[in-house]
Write a structure and sequence with these properties.
This protein is of the alpha+beta class. The longest helix has 18 residues. Strands 9-8-7-6-5-2-1-10 form an eight-stranded parallel sheet. A six-stranded antiparallel sheet has the order 11-12-13-18-15-16, with helices on one face. Strands 19, 23, 26, 28, 31 and 33 form a six-stranded antiparallel sheet that branches. It binds beta-D-galactopyranose. The site of beta-D-galactopyranose (GAL) has 11 residues, from loops. The site of beta-D-galactopyranose has 11 residues, from loops.
């Protein structure tokens, strides 16, 4: 059994094994199911938008600051534009009451939470937010203790009392706390952090110095092998189950905050509404790059209801303040293209117009909130510049050209980047300046340092009667990507750690994800290629994988498939099979590295769930086979 497999995948494998006992060394294969395996829980049909207290105030948060932000969201028109969640982060708690385990609020900073008997309640607070047309979010931790109890030890707002009273995290109290926060207090959104699973080792100096009750770490931030991803997933799944039970109307958001650790990029979509893909953002260009990179190549893992979360916006501070509006606009544009949650964290009681204009860019908000939920795809990739293309629900494209460097950069935009016809005019509208540009075939832009240009696009689609799967990641569920052992993604910008500085031998890759399914490139970031022929469009994945696609009215599935020329395992044969609502509709014979690509075509008319299965005779301890669904497309 593969230790990395998520709970759901392990169930699938168990079913497959029950039906078919394979030779000793062969790998368990995924099986087509005919039912949608992606989660439909929670209310985040589009990326959550709102305000969070953390970047603005850390633990020095209080009721006046939060209600000031809430009022400003309404008064400045941001709420009307979709910023409705008002999320209280770390710092709100006083203690866990010994007699019954009930969480008690720090009424010194949240006076409206006081009750005559000292029980405390946020009901008045959430009622006020609700009456303003807003929603309310709260923060907790999945372990015993929270992050401030490790990293903000100077804070005046740390939990107080005995070691037991200071155990403010969910561990051992999952249903009790979730019922309190949702049923009794009326919250709509919960962010669940993970320091309690990472930083409170029983024999650590932190635990000894502060008299905490330790918890043997399940997350080792520096070692994926020493992280127990299955246990971490199980803890978050328990929270998900309690949230579901406490919210029969499904109107809740579950924000997983374990900073891209424990292979969350694989299981987050099955458990939460969003999951952090990286460490905390700081108001620094390099940190923004790092967080952006941790999400930008994960498009196939996100979609309506479940989103990659590269962290709260840091617009308004440091490299993104009013003296750096180019950088601030880039940060906002990139988060919009990534379908990231848009959470402002600024003291909105005194926000300058120049920043309000950024958060309030209605065109970019519409890009982020487009109902199709297609995260942008990387159409051109390099360390210096990238071109991102996002397909909207109405079929139109949005393109962002991103200069990552501190020097000016020339970028060529091609019709092919947009999957539009080379010989028909293409009209661009700049989503910041609103200016229009028309070109045919190719055009060139000179970008200022750190600039991102973003345009809505009109043109003639390459595929007039259909859509490439790589254009519609929002309807794809990567049920099994074939990754056996999670590997760290080396393509994430390696910043100088904002906390540790250069006090180590170097900045290392930190997040599992390398080898995951990709749009328009292989799982290892190569161009898709079979038998020497390159495919601009397609899905790159590993053998032993299962992709599910929601079919919204198309009649035919087509692709040209084979073992990718970049595979390092050149010995094993793979078969490509297509199922429509559980029925086998197309299958190739076994194909090996070097074999010519095969066309595959299937009648899918009237079927809702198309499943793309790749099986191989690979054995344990071998490199996986890299395969390509070239030009995989749905057609009328
Ligand atoms: C971090 C988390 C931040 C913030 C902080 C609170 O772990 O990533 O977003 O919530 O804890 O202490």
């Amino acid at each position: 059994m593969h230790p990395k497999n998520s709970l759901k995948t392990r169930l699938m494998i168990a079913c497959a094994l029950a039906a078919f006992v394979s030779p000793l060394s062969a790998l368990a294969e995924p099986v087509a199911r005919g039912v949608w395996l992606g989660s439909t829980d929670g209310a985040a049909k589009t990326p959550p938008m709102g305000w969070n207290s953390w970047n603005a105030f850390r633990t020095e948060v209080d009721e006046a600051k939060v209600m000031g932000a809430a009022q400003a969201l309404v008064d400045d028109g941001l709420a009307r534009k979709g910023y409705i969640y008002v999320n209280l982060d770390d710092g709100w708690w006083q203690k866990r009451r010994v007699t019954d385990g009930r969480m008690i609020i720090r009424t010194r900073i949240f006076p409206s939470a006081a009750t005559p008997d000292g029980t405390t309640s946020f009901r008045g607070f959430t009622d006020r937010l609700h009456s303003m047309g807003l929603k309310a979010g709260l923060y907790t931790d999945v372990g015993h203790n929270a992050c401030s109890q490790a990293y903000d030890l100077h804070s005046p707002n740390l939990p107080e009392g005995t070691a037991g009273e200071r155990q403010v995290g969910l561990d051992g109290h999952v249903s009790q706390d979730i019922n309190l926060y949702f049923r009794e207090w009326g919250f709509d959104y919960l962010k669940v952090d993970a320091c309690g699973l990472a930083d409170f080792a029983p024999d650590s100096k932190l635990v000894k110095d502060n008299g905490y009750i330790g918890l043997t770490p399940e997350i080792d931030r520096a070692s994926l092998n020493r992280t127990d991803s299955v246990k971490v997933e199980r803890r978050y799944a328990e929270v998900a189950a309690a949230l579901k039970q406490a919210n029969p109307d499904n109107d809740y958001v579950f924000s997983i905050c374990n900073w891209g650790m424990a292979n969350v990029r694989e299981w987050g979509k099955e458990v939460g509404s969003s999951w952090r893909t990286s460490s905390d953002i700081t108001p620094n260009w390099s940190s923004m790059l790092h967080n952006y990179d941790s999400a930008v190549k994960r498009a196939l893992y996100a979609g309506p209801g479940h989103w990659n979360d590269p962290d709260i916006l840091f617009i308004g501070a440091g490299d993104f303040d009013t003296d750096h509006l180019t950088e601030a606009r880039s940060h906002f544009t990139l988060w919009a293209m990534l379908n990231a949650p848009l959470l402002i964290s600024y003291d909105l009681r005194k926000a300058p117009q120049s920043l309000l204009d950024i958060w309030g860019n209605a065109d970019l908000i519409a890009v982020n909130q487009d109902p199709a939920g297609n995260q942008a795809i990387v159409a051109y990739d390099s360390d210096d510049a990238q071109i991102l293309v996002k397909t909207l629900a109405d079929g139109h494209k949005v393109v962002a050209l991103f200069n990552r460097t501190a020097s000016p950069a020339k970028l060529n935009l091609l019709a092919s980047h947009l999957k539009l016809k080379n010989d028909a005019p293409i009209q661009l509208t700049d989503l910041w300046s609103k200016a229009g540009i028309t070109f045919t075939g190719e055009t060139e832009f000179e970008l200022a340092p750190h600039e991102t240009r973003v345009f809505s696009v009109q043109g003639a689609r390459e595929l007039a009667d259909g859509v490439y799967l790589s254009e519609i990641p929002g309807v794809i569920n990567v049920a099994d990507d074939g990754v056996r052992e999670p590997q760290l993604d080396p393509t994430v910008h390696r910043m100088i750690d904002p906390w540790a500085g250069t006090r180590s031998g170097g900045s290392r890759p930190q997040y599992a994800g390398w080898g995951g399914a990709q749009a328009d490139m292989t799982p290892y970031a190569q161009a898709l290629q079979i038998g020497g022929h390159t495919y601009d469009s397609g899905i790159g994945v590993l053998g032993n994988s299962l992709l599910q696609v929601k079919n919204e009215g198309y009649a035919t599935f087509r692709a040209t498939v084979g073992v990718d020329d970049s595979t390092s395992n050149r010995d094993r044969a793979v078969s490509f099979t297509v199922y429509a609502d559980g029925k086998l509709v197309a299958k190739t014979p076994p194909l090996k590295f070097g074999d010519a690509a095969r066309d595959i075509s299937a009648d899918i008319a009237g079927h809702k769930i198309i499943e793309l299965l790749v099986t191989d005779d690979n054995v344990a301890n071998e490199q996986p086979v890299v395969v390509t669904w070239g030009e995989a497309r749905l057609q009328k």
